[in-house]
Design brief:
single chain, Sulfite Oxidase, Chain A, domain 2, 7-stranded mixed sheet, 9 helices, 12 strands, 19% helix, globular, binds ligand MTE
């Protein structure tokens, strides 16, 4: 039988006001009462002041764009990328953006454990300020054969691995999504193996393309896209890109991911994009662009082979493309 311990951040909202929000709200209201919103806020438009009060990381956006990672496709419309989502915790269909607004993202504690020098528990708002934030435009390819091009803000996952200080025997990092029973109706679908889990080898996690994204379109990450932090590995199918992460566990055992547990013959550990290897139920040769609906050829490693092909040399018996 599964025994589930309640985690600290799952305390019902009525019992706790998130400290950061509380502190900021007090500052904000205190400033209003005094007839001034404070020196820093006075230079900001009212909308930004409110945004900062609601999200203590709002001042980090937009981050400078790293032009080395631009692509030759048009960036998709923001409204499309923010309203056509996969986030099964909120429903097994694409239109979960309203439902996802119930997710509680402050406070947000991240645990780093397993084969590390020392376990770490850190609040997202503290972690993000230790990391080098930048914007990168990446292609994104869902296993369902739709694709988008979006500007992510975030930091190289290598910076997180360095921060975690894994032991020399660690080979993989397993990531876990939050389980909020009171806000995530999908968790009641007991036939899914919650929580959502994904994994990478450490070589993949420290590849320069791997990113922990905290924002999109120059703003903090919307809940439906995986606030406050999610994985972005643009050469892999989208299901690897786990959202709303609460835990990074370093291990010497290959993690079994959520979808692999459900259907190992359809969704494997590696899940590298390859137009020549069809999904057992559909072709992967073409992809549909989210905004225009245009069908275009899919590229090996989603066009990122120069960065990642070397990771998979001499791995002959592995199902690298499913
Ligand atoms: N992460 C969690 N926790 N739950 C999910 O259902 N879906 C995955 C991935 N990460 C999913 C998840 C899939 S299948 C895709 S295609 C992408 O999120 C979609 O990301 P997007 O909604 O930001 O486009």
């Amino acid at each position: 039988m599964l025994i589930r311990r309640q985690k600290g951040w799952e305390i019902p909202e009525r019992d706790v006001t998130p400290q950061a929000l509380y502190r900021n709200r007090r500052q904000f209201l205190g400033g209003l009462a005094a007839g001034t919103i404070g020196a820093a806020a006075a230079t900001l438009p009212a909308g930004r002041v409110l945004a900062q009060a609601m999200d203590p990381t709002a001042d980090l956006y937009p981050a400078p764009r790293n032009e080395s990672y631009t692509v030759d496709r048009a960036i998709d419309e923001k409204a499309k990328a923010l309203t056509y989502n996969n986030f099964y915790e909120f429903g097994s269909h694409k239109f979960i953006s309203d439902a996802a607004q119930a997710m509680k993202i402050r406070p947000w504690t991240i645990k780093i454990d397993g084969m590390v020098e020392q376990e770490i528990e850190i609040d997202f708002d503290d972690l993000v300020r230790k990391m080098p934030l930048e914007e990168r435009v990446y292609r994104f390819r869902c296993v369902e054969a739709w694709a988008m091009t979006v500007p992510w803000t975030g930091f190289p996952m290598k910076a997180l691995v360095d921060f975690a200080k894994p032991l020399s025997g660690a080979k993989y990092v397993e990531m876990e999504t939050a389980s909020q029973r009171d806000t995530m109706p999908g968790l009641r679908q007991f036939w899914y193996p919650w929580p959502y889990v994904e994994g990478l080898t450490l070589a993949e996690a420290t590849n320069e393309l791997s990113m922990i994204a905290t924002g999109i379109y120059g703003e903090a990450m919307p809940k439906q896209n995986g606030a406050p932090l999610r994985l972005v590995t643009p050469w892999k199918y989208g299901f690897k890109n786990i959202k709303s992460i609460v835990r990074f566990t370093f291990t010497d055992k290959r993690p079994v991911s959520f979808w692999e547990r459900i259907a190992e013959t359809e969704y494997g550990f590696w899940a590298n994009v390859n137009p020549q290897i069809p999904h057992p139920r559909w072709s992967q040769a073409q992809e549909r662009l989210l905004t225009t609906g245009e069908e275009v050829p899919t590229l090996l490693f989603n066009g990122y082979g120069d960065y990642v092909a070397d990771l998979y040399k001499d791995m002959d018996g592995e199902n690298l493309y499913m």
